[in-house]
Protein 1
Amino acid sequence: MAWNLSGELIETCSCNMLCPCWFGQADLMLMDQGWCGTTILLRIREGKFEDVDLSGQNAVVNLHFPGPTLFDANGTGRVYIDEGASEAQQNALETILHGASGGGMEVPASLLSKWLSTQRVALTVNENDGKVTAQIPGIGDLSSRRLVNDLGNKMTMQNTAFSMVFGLEGHVGDLAPSDGTAWKDPDMPEPWQGRSGVVGQVTWSG
């Protein structure tokens, strides 16, 4: 199953800014609430899974980890695919986001013990003045706002463990708080609201 994609990964989670899991150090990654809810929006610019075109597709994966650290694993996850995707595109995106064929989700997916069934949803994504929002009616809202300093430059982090795991280009992520994010999928273990977040450019393959 040869595939590749390039695009943007937008991560949000329930920890205060910045989520300690990014550092990948077990003694530092105690979750602020004793557990962690995280939603990742993948915006694909160009991509292909075998002969299936993925260019322009958006998809979301929601993960819950019971803690007290990420490495205690036993997480639960669900993938949300836009209802405009074809069945072939859905199958490809599900495989990628489940980490079943390599790529940036392979390590996070290995920390899960349960995948809930994938849902087809009306996924709306907008971007304006450095802020990205995504909405799935009745399930969740995602909000991500890049931080900039007084000179107008993006605030970033570099070379953290999970910026490498996710394959962020240059291992650099833009700091982007997720206030306004709220996830309430009734099948997931916890409803949660966002605080922390990171945005990065990715090129994945498998």
Note: The radius of gyration is 16 Å.
Protein 2
Amino acid sequence: MNRPHPTAAGGTGNGANRADAILAGAARAFAARGYAAASMREVAQATGASLGSIYHHFGSKEGLLQAIMTTNFRRVRAALEERLTEAVDPRAAIEIFVENHVGFFTRDLDAMKVMSHELSTLHGHAGEEVRALRDAYTERARDFLRRLRPDMGRDELEVATLCFFGMLNWTYRWVHALPSTTSPQQLAQQMARLFLEGFTARTNR
């Protein structure tokens, strides 16, 4: 059985900090080699932790991947909710969503790559937990898009939602090519503007 990530489970102090360091190193190893190809010894080298310490915190290689996914989904969602208010209009909410997502994951591009590539790797309870977190996060964005374009049909809305996350989740592939003067906040603002100008445009039918 996979052990819960100590931070997600409410752990504090040095144990939680050590677990976070292990997750960061594991994300580097999985991003560089792919989850299937990366060995636990390579993970240990990337984290600077012993195999015993890794197994103590996470139980297994699968437990590591599960923790990378669940921890980051929970943290990015928590950061989003802190920035939103009940009264926020849907356009502003989408701008906040993009800025939060880009800001969060440009600080950890390895985790972003792993989450984009390995989502279907986990099965059973671990896979169900990760997909539930992913689906809840996706639905938050879909709801804002629905409120912004209540005239849009279900299929069109689904296409728009997929395009929205396609724009966000592949940032790690090209963010290094950005001008050095472009900050994550500036990038997010431009991405939100480009998406919203297209999404809110009405077409003649």
Note: DSSP finds ten helices and no strands in the chain.
Protein 3
Amino acid sequence: MLVMGGVCSGQEITTTNYYNGDSYTGTRDVNQRRSGWGTFIWANGDRYDGEWNRDMPHGQGTLVWADGSRYEGHWEKGQRKGKGTYISSKGYSITGDWKKGSCTGKGYLSFGTGDTYEGDFVNGLFHGKGVRFFPDGRVYTGQFRDGHIAGKGSMQYPDGSSYEGEWDYDHYEGRGSFTDTNGMTTEGLYTNGKLYKTISRKQAKK
């Protein structure tokens, strides 16, 4: 391990090059733990710039992975926690609340293709209530579970038709009402996205 030093704004700045290829440049506490502000570069190309406490990212900071993905936001004891934004090298991004390294709470996800989701997250998955806009023009408002449309909700289709009712794993499942482009509403029981029992049919007044 090679250590070099300097002084900046009253704080000692040291650079430590580790034998495994990692390096750290920044401030340390009286026990020589990474603390304050610094940059840690891993041998694989990952890089963290931000606040530290007791050798862990803690406070505001940015982690950039070797593939170009990045997280900018708050950290606590080495984990993403609080408000932050993750931008993937694959083109999608998540902005919201983070806990234990994943989006948990309120968030907004953009797939970068016109497909977006805004609402509740648990462990990085859609879970709770939210609104999803699909690139083909569909809009779903309602409940989600484990990353899928599940529970009660409504889907508006670009041709003007709609479905409102129960869902499971992205399909109509249970009781619901489908309104076609002519204003005919069919209430019934659905399974795997298909009507298998009609309860009532009603034509909208023109």
Note: The first strand starts at residue 2 and ends at 8.
